[in-house]
């Protein structure tokens, strides 16, 4: 009887160990499926204008890693969002001030958000300042929804599985 118990325990431990090893081996590949833009490549085109090319993930979304007030965060580009929506954890880390509360309609229903002003937002070499945002405490799936308060400052186009974002701001801070 004890031998059977020991062998079944060893068998269970071997399976758990195998699953752990496979998870470690494939975790980077799984993360690349979700966010293929963890390391954004920026281009400089005519007139020294910063341009970023993002790859669509396997689910059809553009997700990229960027910075909000110097804090690294994962962005989901969302042309249906009016403002840049920030999760409570990223807002706290980025030092965002909580302003007036208001109701917002999200994919998960109506919730409360709080107005804020983002000092700087970086996506590759594209940097914008003083962007309207909202802190959404109930937002859990993504760090930041990159809405139109940021995207309207850029020129962007999609071709196939690529999204090209082009700054209208020259490195000196002037717009084209």
Give a structural overview:
By secondary structure, the chain is α+β, with helices and mostly antiparallel strands. It folds into two domains: 1-34; 37-167, Beta Barrel (Cathepsin D, subunit A, domain 1). Helix content is 24%, strand content 43%. The chain has three helices and eleven strands. The protein has helices at residues 2-34, 88-93, 148-151; strands at 42-45, 49-55, 63-68, 71-77, 84-87, 101-106, 109-123, 126-136, 144-146, 154-159, 162-167. Strands 3-4-9-5-8-7 form a six-stranded mixed β-barrel. Strand 7 and strand 8 (126-136) form a beta hairpin.
What best-fitting shape do the alpha-carbon axes yield? extended
| Straight-line N-to-C gap | 80 Å
Coarse structural class: alpha+beta
Taken in chain order, the helices and strands follow as HEEEEEHEEEEHEE
């Amino acid at each position: 009887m004890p031998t059977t118990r020991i062998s079944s325990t060893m068998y269970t431990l071997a399976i758990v160990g195998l699953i752990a090893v496979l998870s470690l081996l494939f975790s980077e590949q799984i993360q690349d499926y979700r966010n293929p833009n963890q390391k954004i490549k920026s281009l400089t085109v005519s007139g020294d204008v910063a341009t970023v090319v993002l790859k669509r993930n396997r689910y059809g979304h553009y997700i990229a890693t960027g910075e909000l007030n110097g804090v690294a965060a994962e962005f989901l580009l969302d042309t249906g969002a009016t403002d840049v929506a920030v999760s409570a954890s990223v807002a706290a880390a980025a030092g965002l001030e909580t302003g007036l509360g208001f109701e917002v309609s999200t994919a998960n229903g109506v919730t409360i958000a709080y107005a804020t002003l983002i000092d700087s937002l970086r996506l590759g070499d594209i940097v914008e300042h003083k962007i309207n945002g909202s802190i959404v405490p109930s937002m859990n799936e993504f760090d930041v929804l990159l809405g139109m308060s940021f995207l309207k400052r850029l020129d962007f186009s999609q071709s196939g599985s690529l999204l090209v974002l082009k700054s209208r701001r020259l490195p000196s801070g002037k717009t084209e």
